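To the wet lab folks,

You asked to see what we're planning to order before we commit. Fair enough. Below is the target structure as tokens, and below that is the sequence we designed to fit it. If anything looks off to you, flag it before the synthesis order goes out.
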């Protein structure tokens, strides 16, 4: 039996969190829970909640802690995450959300929080070139596009630039990251849950470092 894991991946926008979360979710056979993807799919479904979230997201601002905390609490109560664990991508991103997460995980504590570290200059270049599949959220870039036009290799969906990858929204998101999310690094360090991993290199190199960091923490 594969033991699973309960993980959080932190890191700036464009650090490669999404890609690495997908790879780790395959490695440990655990669900990948991306709050950004969950919100974008609510937007596509056109639910009332999705419509409200869209305006906030397009500006690059954060959905309220209460709302996003409810979404995550519900997802972490499902059988798959209770039994196997999960990798959280994009949550928590405020101290309020981290406090909510520790309430949610009472009795099944996190194994590890990883800060995926990439210099700001690299992040800015990656965000400007980032493209994403509207259907399955696979990331591409202008430097490594899909094989056939802007059609997703994985599912055939349309590959586009995200509405919040404009220069203005990128600036707002990076500022919010520094102000709201970066303090979580110290917060989790104090609780002896944090490890930093270098996010530069090929996707496979970074995954190997992440797996080594996770395995070092597990019995
Ligand atoms: P990025 O990390 O590149 O900013 P995400 O895909 O994680 O993008 O999130 C996109 C948007 O969804 C955020 O800018 C925000 O508006 C909203 N969002 C996602 N996760 C959260 C969260 N934990 N709390 C508040 N808002 C969130
Ligand atoms: Zn796709």
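Sequence we intend to order:
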């Amino acid at each position: 039996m594969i033991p699973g894991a309960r993980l959080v991946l932190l890191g700036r926008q464009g650090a490669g969190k999404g890609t690495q979360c997908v790879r780790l979710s395959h490695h440990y056979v655990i669900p990948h829970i991306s709050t950004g993807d969950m919100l974008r799919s609510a937007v596509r479904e056109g639910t009332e909640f999705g419509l409200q979230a869209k305006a906030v997201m397009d500006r690059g601002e954060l959905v309220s802690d209460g709302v996003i905390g409810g979404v995550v609490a519900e997802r972490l109560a499902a059988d798959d995450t209770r039994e196997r664990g999960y990798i959280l991508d994009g949550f928590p991103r405020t101290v309020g959300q981290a406090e909510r997460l520790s309430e949610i995980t009472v009795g099944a504590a996190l194994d590890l929080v990883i800060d995926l570290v990439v210099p700001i200059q690299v992040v800015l270049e990656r965000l400007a070139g980032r493209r994403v599949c509207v259907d399955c959220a696979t990331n591409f870039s202008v430097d490594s596009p899909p094989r056939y036009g802007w059609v997703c290799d994985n599912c055939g969906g349309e590959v586009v630039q995200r509405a919040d990858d404009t220069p203005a929204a990128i600036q707002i998101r990076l500022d919010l990251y520094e102000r709201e999310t970066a303090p979580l690094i110290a917060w989790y360090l104090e609780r002896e849950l944090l490890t930093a991993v270098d996010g530069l290199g090929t996707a496979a190199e970074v995954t190997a470092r992440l797996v080594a960091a996770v395995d070092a923490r597990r019995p």
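Structural context that might help your review: The beta strands are 5-10, 32-34, 85-89, 112-117, 130-133, 139-141, 159-160, 194-198. The chain has a mean pLDDT of 93.

Thanks,
Computational group
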